[in-house]
Amino acid sequence: MNTYKRHRFPPEIISYAVWLYFRFNLSHRDVEDLLAQRNVTVSYETIRRWCIKFGATYARRLRRKHQGYGDTFYLDEVFVKIRGQQHYLWRTVDQNGEVVDVFLQRRRDSVAAKRFFRRLLRSHGQEPRKIVTDKLGSYVVAHRELIPDVIYDTSKYANNRVEQSHEPTRVRERVMRQFKSFRHAQQFLGVHAVVHNVFNLGRHLVRAGHYRNLREGAFRLWATAVA
């Protein structure tokens, strides 16, 4: 089935607009201006619909092509306000800094923690070798009841890796002036995490030539997802 059937604009423009939105800290209006500079006239509302529809499709394809995560998971949660109501964004990254999953919930009690653990185990397919969390009691309960044989670390500063990984989300939240709905937030954050994994290449950690090779590989992977 043709993914782009009945769309007036060619796939190259649609996929480029979606890439701009999820890859950089841009609003839909920013993307509209960037396309206009290239003589492509499209409204920001159309771009918004593209991001909702095609962002989820691209993310699903990228997940299928993912080579797998590490064996150590770092878990943390931060509060997110949606229409004045406080929610909690649960996040897991592996030892390489890749986002394994993000999951928005209304609570951070033991029920919510177990729900997040089950989601992780279902999507990952197997138990990790080790998990690292802060000292929130909800994690203790979930670990004890669901994965008691997995190494569990709550030592001070051990969880810094995942705490730092919240920053890109915070930046986007400020650009978007908070999320408009629970469903919109979960959808955006899921796609954003996948795109972030593809293009988060650690530029400051490698030589320029190696970085360019990694970037070319990321572009090739993206091209297969949007084809």
Strand order of the largest sheet: 3-2-1-4-5
Distance between the termini: 12 Å
What integer value in Å does the Rg equal?
19 Å
Number of strand elements: 5
- Strand and helix order: HHHEEEHEHEHHHH
Low-confidence stretches: none
Tell me the helix content: 40-55%
Task: Sum up the overall morphology in one term.
Answer: globular
**How much β-strand is present in the residues?**
5-15%
Largest sheet: 5 strands, mixed
Structural class: alpha/beta
How confident is the prediction overall: mean pLDDT? 92
Task: Describe the structure concisely for a colleague.
The chain is of the alpha/beta class. The protein has nine helices and five strands, in the order αααβββαβαβαααα. The model has no long low-confidence stretch (mean pLDDT 92).
